[in-house]
Design goal:
Blueprint lengths: L4 E5 L3 H13 L3 E5 L2 H10 L4 E5 L1 E2 L2 E2 H11 L5 E5 L4 H9 L4 E4 L4 H17 L33 H14 L5 E4 L6 H10 L8 E5 L8 H6 E2 L11 E2 L1 H4 L4 E5 L6 H13 L1 E2 L8 E2 L3 E6 L3 H6 L5 H7 L2 E4 L10 H16 L5 E2 L1 H9 L5 H15 L4 E2 L1 H4 L1 H15 L14 H19 L4 H8 L3 H11 L3
Parallel strand pairs: 1-2, 1-3, 3-6, 6-7, 8-15, 8-16, 9-12, 12-15, 17-18
Antiparallel strand pairs: 4-5, 10-11, 13-14
The structure holds adenosine-5'-triphosphate (ATP).
Length: 472
């Protein structure tokens, strides 16, 4: 870290001195500026590795500097110091391309972590950055060569290129990202890439399905607990935030968070600290938050089911993963890639996909997106007898029937089985319930969250019923 030169901008002499001293103790060379004019002069005359600016300065707003640095020095990470509780300022700074923020009074421990992360980013900089904008959603996407980690994202459509371009850019920031997209469209894969391409790569990546944690255990799962803090707390337990310290926490299916937990999460995200159940003190955590959802969150906010303040905090930047219907041209490349993977994993000969079968795949309505394509190919490799996969091997009608079928039974269109003479009404009802559960699971490609949705019951209720009937 020797010789790295950083720029601090703050008009309050006491705070400025404290910041300078803290960073110099980290072995950094520090230049301090008291206003925008001094800062611009310093930027023009030096090659900085990191910049930290206050928001309110005597001759203007620190956000103007964030924008200017984004334009003139796109590789220079810049963080802002926000007044305590001014979440809007922090969100605005992140949207404008700030790397991260710290709020006043500045916690020096957190600041040191932030600076280390920023300098790691700078040290890793080997590839020149594209000078693009976060919200340039409709701009034509320049081709981002799918080399290195990004080659894990298959597909060369415009939509996929735009995703790669966004992911590369998002990896450089610490801003919260909301990843939207249909089931199986690659949301978790995108989150992993943002983590792997960023300065937190050596830290943990912890994905958590928010719909899968029982309500009563949520607080303990996220924040941990102290031994003896409630019945059954036999030992101290670390929560997911602590487990993700120095890395990334992915809140998957974030729409399924119950309201009481949304309040607690918001606090943890804002304060960058958690308090385990039964603990007196809060513990600072250095975690980047990504979230993913297949449900549109905005309508949930309007219905009062998702807190608007949490939505505002999580959705600083949105990354949309396109469904296969939006990029059918990517299907051949995806199919060829997965076929190779499957045959390598199963140690069998790789059959070719006949042109007719490829056509059929391109016509197919993939409600389960890439995950469904993988399932279809796994089955096709098992079914194919000759050297090629033919349309029949794909058994696409069966997948279509599954799309339509569960609606049939689940909505009561299909005839109900008759009641046996020696059967009680209870066991008869249980048989029907079991049958509906199995069909909904099949239709949802064994995604329990989706199956619960189709059945109109909560995830927790589904899990209870599956256990009751011994369905795995
Ligand atoms: N563009 C892609 N290139 C290569 N593999 C992909 C791509 N998109 C998705 N996959 C693969 O498809 C599978 C499903 O992707 P993933 O779990 O990321 O989807 P998801 O959107 O998070 O799904 P869900 O909504 O069900 O949680 C994974 O095996 C993933 O690696």
């Amino acid at each position: 870290m020797d010789n790295q030169h950083v720029l601090i901008i703050d008009d309050e002499p006491d705070i400025r001195d404290l910041l300078v001293m803290t960073l110099e103790r980290m072995g950094l060379r520090v230049t301090a500026a008291a206003d925008l004019v001094q800062a611009r002069r310093a930027l023009g005359a030096n090659d900085f590795s990191f910049c930290l600016t206050d928001m309110r300065l005597p001759d203007g707003n620190g956000l103007d500097l964030v924008q200017q640095i984004g334009r003139d020095h796109p590789d220079l990470p810049v963080a802002v110091i926000t007044a305590h509780g001014r979440v809007e300022d922090a969100v605005q700074a992140l949207k404008l391309g700030a790397f991260d923020f710290v709020s006043k009074p500045v916690d020096l421990g957190m600041l040191r972590k932030l600076v280390n992360t920023a300098l790691r980013l700078r040290a890793d900089d080997s590839t020149p950055e594209q000078d693009d904008d976060f919200d340039a959603a409709n701009a034509p996407a320049p081709i981002v060569e799918p080399d290195g980690e990004l080659s894990r994202l298959i597909g060369n459509s415009q939509a996929m290129n735009r995703c790669r371009q966004m992911i590369r850019k998002l990896a450089r920031s610490q801003a919260p990202v909301l990843i939207s997209g249909a089931s199986g469209s690659g949301k978790e894969l995108a989150a992993r890439l943002i983590h792997d391409l960023g300065p937190r790569i050596d830290g943990p990546f912890i994905p958590v399905n928010c719909g899968a944690i029982p309500t009563e255990l949520m607080e303990s799962e996220f924040f941990g607990h102290k031994k003896g803090s409630f019945t059954g707390a036999d030992a101290n337990k670390e929560g997911l935030f602590q487990a993700a310290d120095g890395g990334t926490l992915l809140l998957d299916e974030v729409a399924d968070l119950p309201l009481h937990m949304q309040v607690k999460l918001l606090r943890a995200i804002q304060e960058k600290a958690v308090r385990p159940i039964g603990a007196r003190e809060e513990i600072g955590v250095d975690v980047r938050i990504l979230s993913a959802t297949h449900k549109a969150l905005k309508p949930l906010v309007e219905e009062g089911k998702f807190r608007s303040d949490l939505y505002f905090r999580l959705n600083v930047i949105e990354l949309h993963m396109p469904s296969l219907a939006e990029r059918p041209d990517d299907i051949p490349a995806l199919a060829t890639h997965f076929l190779k993977n499957i045959t390598a994993e199963w140690d069998t000969q790789a059959p070719a996909i006949s042109p007719d079968a490829m056509d059929a795949l391109q016509q197919h309505d993939f409600s389960g997106n890439v995950r469904e394509l993988i399932n279809i190919l796994q089955r096709a490799v098992t079914m194919s007898e000759g050297g090629a996969i033919d349309p029949d091997d794909l058994m696409l009608e069966q997948f279509d029937d599954l799309h339509d079928g569960a609606n049939g039974h689940a909505n009561g269109d299909a005839p109900l089985p008759g009641l046996d003479a020696d059967q009680s009404l209870d066991t008869y009802m249980e048989d029907i319930e079991k049958q509906m559960l199995e069909e909904a699971l099949k239709k949802a490609r064994y995604n329990k969250t989706r199956a619960a949705e189709q059945l109109g019951i909560s995830f927790r209720s589904l899990r209870y019923k599956l256990k009751k009937y011994g369905i795995d």
